[in-house]
Amino acid sequence: IELKHGAKLDERGIRLDGKQAYAASRSIGIDLKEKTLEVWVQLDDINQRGGGAISVQTLNGNIFDAIVYGEREKQRWMAGSNGFVRYSSFKGPEEKDAKGRPVHFAMVYRQDGTIIGYRDGQAYGQGYKSRGLQSYAAADAQVIFGLRHGTGPAGGRMLKGSILKARL
After folding, report:
1. Which 8-state DSSP code applies to residue 32?
2. How far apart are CA 36 and CA 116, in angstroms?
3. pTM of the predicted protein model
4. Using CA atoms, how far apart are residues 42 and 15, in angstroms rounded to an integer?
């Protein structure tokens, strides 16, 4: 993982400023279809909008799947994707705890296009069937933290808080 634009690694994890800081992996090295994104995250501001906690994306940042906070619905988690093509509301509850403590969020992407969210081990709202599963080629995909998608800082895409742990 490469820390970019002021992202810092401390005893809690990766610190993100919500303005420029993010972290990115090299190419993931495996073809990816069905997947689960997981993140343990603590937000600095529960009113922030549109930041990505963890994303898998093409290296140019144009195609992505991400755990996104507050972009379409204030204080709610969502499955972010390029042009919202795999997005639908989970109709989950507003986030109330992630500023005071880390929360665990997982997003499961199934072969049939179904996307299910889990918050602290419990179903988050209702899963839904998207337009279809997005696959990623081994040499043209990476994981990023703190940036919804792209190759550099961008307004409305940055997360302010700490990523304590993450898995793909």
Report:
1. B
2. 9
3. 0.96
4. 10
- pLDDT means per 10 residues, the chain with 168 residues, are 96 96 97 98 97 98 98 97 97 96 98 98 98 97 98 94 98
Q: In three state form, how does the secondary structure of 57-72 look?
A: EECCCCCEEEEEECCC
> Exposed, middle or buried by CB within 10 Å (0-12, 13-18, 19+), for 83?
exposed
7: helix, strand or coil: coil
- Judged on CB neighbours under 10 Å (0-12, 13-18, 19+), 139 is exposed
Q: DSSP secondary-structure letter at 136? A: B
Residue corresponding to tokens 């970019």:
4
Per the structure block, which two tokens stand in for 26?
């090299």
Q: If you search the block for the tokens 């940055």, which residue do you land on?
A: 158
Classified as helix, coil or strand, 83 is helix
Instruction: Pull the structure tokens for residue 30.
Output: 């495996």
